[in-house]
């Protein structure tokens, strides 16, 4: 099957949603001024792709009202369904307040899924105060830890599991610095993800 070339221009998509339809920017990770250069889901400044709201295979048309602009990574993950509201629900559900924080936030959620505890609660449970001394320690060590992680072959970004691993290595350094011992992990614990 030969894929049809999309005729709708990116500028037409931005104009349609932000200036004609006046989409609520408050629910997105991007505002109108940067909607042509930042992904509407993650807010990162990336090369944007025209993403069908309703896929062509399900009858979606080549017109501005049927597209959003996403980076390649978000485009791969978008919902491919015939209900257009789901796309907007998905984009709004991932809204972040600050640019370029989206993937770090997802990495922190991945950490919580793996270790059944937020990073903040991990530190609190170790009996360590979250003060300026700790914040300085984190800032210095997070930069050092970037030397101990890498990108997956062929991907120009850190995946969420790598971000979670970076946070775990940081927690281990914090525990060591403060003379604390991390409790052993309970792999038989009740899952917090959908009750699994």
The N- to C-terminal Cα distance equals 40 Å
Uncertain ranges: none
What's the CATH C level of the largest domain? Mainly Alpha
Helix content: 40-55%
Tell me the count of domains.
2
Coarse structural class:
mainly alpha
CATH topology of the largest domain: DNA Binding (I), subunit A
At a glance:
The protein is mainly alpha-helical and 196 residues long. The chain is built from seven helices and two strands; from the N terminus they run H-E-E-H-H-H-H-H-H.
Q: If you had to describe this structure to a student in words, what would you say it looks like?
A:
- With 196 residues, this protein is mainly alpha-helical.
- It has helices at residues 10-20, 72-77, 84-93, 102-115, 119-125, 132-145, 160-177, and strands at 48-52, 67-71.
- Strands 1-2 form a two-stranded antiparallel sheet.
- The longest helix is centred in the last third of the chain and has 18 residues, at 160-177.
- The chain is elongated.
Q: Which helices and strands appear, and what pairs or packs with what?
A:
Layout: H1 10-20, E1 48-52, E2 67-71, H2 72-77, H3 84-93, H4 102-115, H5 119-125, H6 132-145, H7 160-177
Antiparallel strand pairs: 1-2
Helix pairs in contact: 4-7, 6-7
């Amino acid at each position: 099957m030969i894929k049809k070339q999309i005729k709708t221009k990116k500028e037409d998509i931005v104009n349609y949603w932000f200036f004609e339809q006046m989409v609520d920017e408050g629910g997105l990770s991007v505002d109108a001024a940067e909607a042509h250069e930042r992904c509407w889901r993650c807010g990162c400044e990336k090369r944007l792709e025209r993403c069908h709201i309703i896929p062509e295979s399900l009858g979606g048309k080549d017109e501005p009202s049927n597209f959003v602009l996403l980076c390649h990574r978000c485009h791969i993950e978008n919902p491919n369904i015939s209900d257009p509201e789901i796309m907007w629900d998905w984009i709004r559900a991932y809204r972040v307040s600050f640019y370029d924080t989206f993937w770090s936030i997802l990495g922190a959620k991945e950490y919580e899924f793996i270790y059944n505890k937020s990073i903040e609660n991990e530190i609190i449970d170790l009996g360590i105060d979250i003060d300026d001394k700790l914040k300085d320690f984190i800032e210095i060590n997070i930069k050092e830890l970037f030397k101990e992680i890498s990108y997956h072959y062929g991907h120009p970004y850190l995946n969420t599991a790598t971000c979670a691993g970076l946070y775990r290595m940081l927690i281990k350094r914090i525990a060591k610095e403060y003379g604390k011992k991390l409790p052993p992990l309970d792999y038989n614990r009740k899952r917090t993800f959908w009750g699994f």
